[in-house]
Amino acid sequence: MSREQVYNFAAGPSVLPESALREAQRELLDYRGSGMSVMEMSHRSPAFQEIFDGAKAKLRAALGVPASHEILFLQGGATLQFAAIPMNLMAGGAADYAVTGHFSKRAAAEAEKYGSVRLAFDGSGTRFDRIPSPEELRPGADAAYFHYCANNTVYGTEWSYVPETAAPLVCDMSSNILSKPVDVSRFGLIYAGAQKNMAPAGLTVVILDRSLAGRALPYTPEVMRYDVLLEHDSMLNTPPCWCVWMLSLVLDRLAEQGGVEAMAALRRERAGLLYALLDESDFYTAHARPGSRSESNVTFRTPSPELDALFVKEAAARGLLNLKGHKAAGGLRASLYNAMPLEGAKALAAFMKDFEVKHRV
Ligand SMILES: *Cc1c(COP(=O)(O)O)cnc(C)c1O
């Protein structure tokens, strides 16, 4: 199957804008007459510094990052931040964690090694099918920060509001960053692995309020200390150069398409199409409850695990790829990131209707 015949619903790494891939291909061997690929140049060279500064400036503009906040381009994935955050911000004290899914649960478990974790919410009792209301959140007193995951990639739920807390907000935005406007000034720290909506795997973006740096536990590795990383402008060691370049290309494409506001309208329409179909059907069941549903990852199931498996197989034969749910959640999942056109969601909806007619009992 060729790229033209496929819609890729992978949860991450996931589809990237074709125009960004084509530009990378054009400049793969020779970046703008330098005689070198971006993969081959020194991260200390003026050419790379320009790419790096450009990517940061474009990200700052795309998200409206205020002057109080710095952008770091790091390695280690969102998962390394599960440890870096408590090491840097908890100072051995306590922090609040809202556990609404797979990754926030892992983040909380990691943080327990470095201080006292208090669960402001635990959604495990209903298989992480919903986001708590603001009234349900139980933030503790004197928390160093309040951590939550804005979009639960595995279970397909998403916060529709930003919690109001006395403690600084720390948010994992791996699977919905750059897909809608956010008021960055409300957050102490935002982090995201790039491979869902920004760039190839290997880059982690951290956006942090500069005033939060400088409180790291003494044994924090240098390469994880925010104050040290800020001082070195993310280049204490070699940054993920190629991924930063790809991010820059993806951000160009985002700006051409109308920025995060345009992405927010697109994701609403794409996901809305699928949720409407799920709600009308008595064959499919949506996992997430109304009001908590993600517009990045739509999770659902057919009447049986056998039909789920058949769905994945028959969809793939039609060029609709990677619809199997995460192993922790089972069922099916369609990930709809920025580079997924509306036509992709329409093609999936058409297939779902056909599949239902064919296999309804
Ligand atoms: C994918 C994902 C992660 C894990 O990211 P890595 O970059 O693989 O460490 C963490 N949080 C969320 C919300 C994710 O979607």
Protein model, in words:
It is a single chain. This protein is α/β, with parallel strands linked by helices and 361 residues long. It has two domains: 3-17 and 259-359, Aspartate Aminotransferase, domain 1 (Alpha-Beta Complex); 22-256, Aspartate Aminotransferase, domain 2 (3-Layer(aba) Sandwich). It is 35% helix and 16% strand. It has helices at residues 18-26, 46-63, 77-89, 102-111, 226-231, 241-256, 259-280, 305-317, 342-359, and strands at residues 7-8, 69-74, 94-99, 116-122, 146-149, 151-152, 157-158, 169-172, 189-193, 204-209, 285-286, 297-301, 320-321, 332-335. It has a seven-stranded mixed β-sheet with strand order 2-10-9-8-5-3-4, sandwiched between helices. The longest helix has 22 residues, at 259-280. The mean pLDDT is 97. The chain binds pyridoxal-5'-phosphate (PLP). Pyridoxal-5'-phosphate binds next to helix 3.
Features:
single chain; 361 residues; alpha/beta; Aspartate Aminotransferase, domain 1; Aspartate Aminotransferase, domain 2; 2 domains; seven-stranded mixed beta sheet; three-stranded antiparallel beta sheet; 16% strand; globular; binds pyridoxal-5'-phosphate
Entry summary:
By secondary structure, this protein is of the alpha/beta class. The protein has helices spanning 18-26, 46-63, 77-89, 102-111, 226-231, 241-256, 259-280, 305-317, 342-359, and strands spanning 7-8, 69-74, 94-99, 116-122, 146-149, 151-152, 157-158, 169-172, 189-193, 204-209, 285-286, 297-301, 320-321, 332-335.
